[in-house]
Q: What sequence folds into this?
């Protein structure tokens, strides 16, 4: 096995009763790669992602994330990954600073380290005037940028982003992606789901799930060639519509 | 005019949600309100559907005043809120029956209008609404909003969080409803859906930035846009932003959309600059602006 593979998935399967939500999916993700995980609603993306972050046990198959087995070493996985989603990111009733301190504590950072990280994060995002504001009072785009930074506090090898930019305005959405590029450039692996097909084009490689299976997996450029499509949106429509 | 909005403003605890909003929607028109979360779209929908009082300004819907004639408006409009708001414990058929009865009609009477949409969920008519998939919930909500044959239909972010396939199907349904003479006001955060509307209003932070047809908005874009590409996307963005003549730099799919401050911009200069910064496989080509480019320029 190559050392630079930070996610290795082999025939990973999840069944609920008779229903196969995820059907023997196999793929690898490299260090520093931006990997787009796409699929229609109900295709099995969320179920697959839950297995990869160690909160749902596979029915069959295996996967290693950051070197740990998803079935037997789930707690180690949780310590070594970052996670954020549109639905759950930060606590609205805590201030920006309190959120950072809270998540730093959860990730087991020392007080000195939290202090240093807080300072750096606030500086980088230009949040000097907002540190004592409740997160709930901030615009969505800001929240998502802070949430992404918070998910990186413990310097995880991989960060999982579940529709991080839904509803965010176009300028902030791009600032968010610049942050993603920057982290990937520093060697962090990014695993991201999105419904914006232009964002699929930002990924190094993209997989598309249909009915529990990965039907396509390649760079956006090669997928467009393969499906004779102008954009990733056309690729998606061709695949998911059959 | 089917909808007339003049100088509507609304604040919540000192935060201005809507600021002096004015626009008109013609009868039979498909008008899109395009903007991100927090732009004020839902507040405006709630004002126009008589669920919320504005602080200032007037508006009429289907010829009726939103304050004085609120009861008639409620009978003449269909409203599909952004959040699923049907009865989860009632079945598909029970929900539809319920809404028909409330409006003093029956499913049979207006079945023609909803037929296209309802047949897709009819096989599940005995399933509880709470157990439906996202796409099916949407179709049921739309059927319920249409069952009393409204003159004006309000659709608040019907496609948010929906995958591209279901989004496309939903827009095909909207288009068919428009052909039946219904005036439609629809909101969306997806800029690519703007092209499907007759006219659009771009909205951000409670302010309408521009109102026109999608084609006209694109035509009015003030600059030449270039698709720039190179091997390292992150380095490319950083380098373009650092270029002294850059006006805007936005990642767009596999390219970066770049505009220059100068009128006599020559792409060759930019290519040289990028090459000096160790970027490889650089291409720079003139491209067409999109609604998203227009939005970002206006919001800048």
A:
């Amino acid at each position: 096995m190559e050392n630079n593979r930070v996610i290795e998935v082999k025939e990973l399967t999840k069944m609920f009763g008779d229903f196969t939500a995820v059907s023997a999916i196999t793929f690898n993700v490299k260090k520093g790669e931006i990997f787009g995980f796409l699929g229609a609603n109900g295709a099995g993306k969320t179920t697959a992602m839950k297995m990869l972050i160690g909160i749902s046990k596979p029915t069959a198959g295996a996967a290693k994330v950051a070197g740990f087995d998803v079935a037997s070493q789930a707690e180690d996985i949780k310590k070594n990954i970052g996670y954020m989603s549109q639905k759950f990111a930060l606590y609205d009733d805590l201030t920006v600073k309190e959120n950072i301190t809270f998540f730093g504590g959860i990730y087991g950072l020392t007080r000195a380290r939290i202090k240093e990280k807080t300072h750096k994060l606030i500086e980088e995002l230009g949040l000097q005037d907002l540190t004592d504001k409740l997160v709930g009072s901030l615009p969505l785009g800001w929240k998502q940028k802070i949430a992404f930074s918070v998910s990186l506090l413990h310097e995880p090898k991989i960060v999982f982003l579940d529709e991080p930019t839904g509803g965010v305005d176009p300028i902030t959405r791009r600032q968010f992606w610049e942050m993603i590029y920057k982290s990937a450039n520093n060697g962090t692996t990014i695993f991201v789901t999105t419904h914006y097909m232009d964002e699929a084009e930002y990924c190094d490689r993209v997989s598309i799930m249909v009915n529990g299976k990965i039907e396509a997996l390649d760079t956006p450029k090669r997928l467009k060639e393969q499906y004779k499509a102008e954009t990733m949106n056309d690729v998606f429509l061709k695949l998911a519509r059959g | 005019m089917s909808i007339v909005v003049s100088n509507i403003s609304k604040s919540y605890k000192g935060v201005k949600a809507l600021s002096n909003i004015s626009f008109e929607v013609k009868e039979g028109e498909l008008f899109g309100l395009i903007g991100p979360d927090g732009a004020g779209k839902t507040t405006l929908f709630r004002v126009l559907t008589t669920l919320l009082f504005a602080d200032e300004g007037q508006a009429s819907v289907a010829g009726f005043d939103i304050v004085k004639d609120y009861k008639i408006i409620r009978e003449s409009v269909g409203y599909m809120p952004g959040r699923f708001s049907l009865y989860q414990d009632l079945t598909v058929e029970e929900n539809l029956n319920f809404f028909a009865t409330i409006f003093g009609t029956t499913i049979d009477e207006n079945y023609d209008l909803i037929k296209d949409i309802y047949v897709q969920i009819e096989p599940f008519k005995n399933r509880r609404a709470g157990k439906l998939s996202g796409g099916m919930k949407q179709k049921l909500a739309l059927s319920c909003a249409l069952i009393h044959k409204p003159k004006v239909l309000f659709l608040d972010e019907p496609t948010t969080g929906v995958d591209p396939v279901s989004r496309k199907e939903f827009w095909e349904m909207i288009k068919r409803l428009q052909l039946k003479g219904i005036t439609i006001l629809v909101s969306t955060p997806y800029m690519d859906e703007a092209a499907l509307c007759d006219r659009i209003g771009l909205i951000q932070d409670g302010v309408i930035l521009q109102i026109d047809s999608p084609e006209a908005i694109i035509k009015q874009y003030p600059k030449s846009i270039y698709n720039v590409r190179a091997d390292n996307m992150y380095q490319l963005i950083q380098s373009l932003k650092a270029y002294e003549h850059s006006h805007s730099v936005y990642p767009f799919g596999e390219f970066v959309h770049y505009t220059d401050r100068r009128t006599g911009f020559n792409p060759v200069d930019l290519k040289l600059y990028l090459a000096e910064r160790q970027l490889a496989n650089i291409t720079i080509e003139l491209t067409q602006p999109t609604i998203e480019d227009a939005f970002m320029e206006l919001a800048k």
In short: The CA atoms of residues 57 and 71 of chain A lie 6 Å apart. The two ends of chain A are 35 Å apart (CA to CA).
